[in-house]
Amino acid sequence: MGDCEQCMVRKLSALNVLKGEEIKSISGCKVTKRIKKGEVVFKEGDMLNGVYCISSGVCKLTKLTEKGKDQVVKLVIKGELLGQRSVIINQTANLTATALNDMEVCFIPKQEILQDLLKNNEFSFSVLKRMATDLKEAEIAIVNMAQKSVRKRLADIILYLHNNFGVDESNYLKVPLSRDDFASIVGTATESVIRTLSQFKKEGLIKTSGKKIQILNYDELELME
Amino acid sequence: MGDCEQCMVRKLSALNVLKGEEIKSISGCKVTKRIKKGEVVFKEGDMLNGVYCISSGVCKLTKLTEKGKDQVVKLVIKGELLGQRSVIINQTANLTATALNDMEVCFIPKQEILQDLLKNNEFSFSVLKRMATDLKEAEIAIVNMAQKSVRKRLADIILYLHNNFGVDESNYLKVPLSRDDFASIVGTATESVIRTLSQFKKEGLIKTSGKKIQILNYDELELME
DNA sequence: GTGAAACCATGACAATTATCATATTTTTGT
DNA sequence: ACAAAAATATGATAATTGTCATGGTTTCAC
Asked: How many Cβ atoms from other residues are within 10 Å of residue B2's Cβ?
């Protein structure tokens, strides 16, 4: 149960602009939770009683399609808030949040956040800016989904994982995604992912070891049309 | 040059929560513009000096892909603000706005909006709620792009146009989209749109007259998988 | 009104992606 | 360590979608 005032993660998030009093208040009512890999933080349709500030770990936000498949909409990382949108518009969650590795999150009750939003203009402007950025990214995602091939979308997500989540000591991507996860990010069949990764291997773009992936030719992945 | 205080369109928008003083100030500095069908309001990459409040007409927001195609991200209608995101995060426009029919818009300078956002908490919370809703819709669009067939996406947009923009006296869709526009909304080739519309005609789902489209079987368009 | 330009339509074919079947490998629980 | 379960891999084939070519229609400026 750390002190929010000192928390480095908070300083990365929209909560960074909160003042002493507000932070003390959050410190007093927040609840720290550990979430294991594969566990669900909240589900599409849940009414959220607060937001989650991610301290460590990575989480996927998915939406269930009519065919019963999951589609990943966004990967979320330390320093981002989960569930803020549902709290702001007071609706049930639009997406399901599932941990991709072990996570630590701080749960902050809804009324605490709403109170700060209404009182502290700098804070609501800060949340507004984050949301504007999220919206911009979502728009880009729409265009990519609509216009890029499965092959290119898969190359893109590999590069994205490399750039945003880094590599381990032997240069393999850190985030452990299954072929199924890749499929639901790219929006394609699992077999298509497997086939395309095999193709990438043949072309010397990547190499794999079990489910781990290492980039061999960054530039060509990026330049792929 | 109407008076914003009385403006019904403003009352539909996020500007509805502004108070007397603020509205008078906007009334004094806003500029009303007429934009003809096909004209560009602003272009991807432009630095916007304000936001546009749409009084009448419909406009498409597009993004240019690497292949040089336009992808429609959103259709925007009376009562919505254009360019708010760019103004809030102080970046160049991410999308191009083009009039689909003759439009009337009110241009409100950036500093006016920013000043109100920083001073009036109710206003920034109102904008925040709108943006949260936009984000939710964008997420749904990502899932639809990823998971639905061209055939279903085309059916969806026809239903959307019917529900949101209505029909004329002979039941044809009011918004005049070309096959090209449909293609860049659905994210497919123009020929695929034409073919699929022909298919819909054969199946008795729609009928056409020139470029105008009329829905004959709403339910089946909706139930299509 | 008329000719040019833009738009719509369809065929033929190629490329991409999905689906189903069936091995093989890796991971996991005990 | 070992069996069961899950995940990965690959082939065969079908369905969807894209591309190129070509011709007919509508729209619009003059």
From this structure: 15
- CB proximity A65 to B under 8 Å: yes
Count of H-run helices and E-run strands, chain B = 9, 10
Q: Which amino acid is it at A212? A: K
Cβ atoms A108, A29 nearer than 8 A: yes
pLDDT digits (tens, 9 = 90+) for B27-71: 999 999 999 999 999 999 999 999 999 999 999 999 999 888 999
Nearest to A178 by CA among A204, A160, A205, A197: A197
Answer positive or negative: Cα dihedral of A160, A166, A171, A176. Answer: negative
Can you tell me the distance from the alpha carbon of B30 to that of B17, in angstroms, rounded to the nearest whole number? Answer: 17
CB contact under 8 A, A145 and B142: yes
| CB contact B133 to A (< 8 Å) | yes
Other beta carbons within 10 angstroms of residue A164's beta carbon come to 12
Separation CA A153–CA B95 (nearest Å): 21
Helix, strand, or coil here: A188? coil
